[in-house]
Amino acid sequence: MSLEERAKATAKNIEGKAQEAAANITGDPKDKAEGKAKQAESQVRHAAEDVKDNIKEKLD
Fold first, then answer.
1. pTM of the predicted model as reported, rounded to 2 decimal places
2. DSSP secondary structure, 1-59, as one string
């Protein structure tokens, strides 16, 4: 497990949530979509780290 990669994914998720929240206030649909995309990217990164962890556990 790469703690650094998980931290980056969490930071990306927080960034996306903040951008989406700001877009809800300003009414900017582009920013809202970008915020949701960042959150989705974060989920993919976390899933990739989970796969890496599972493979490493099986190899050990």
1. 0.84
2. --HHHHHHHHHHHHHHHHHHHHHHHHT-HHHHHHHHHHHHHHHHHHHHHHHHHHHHHHH
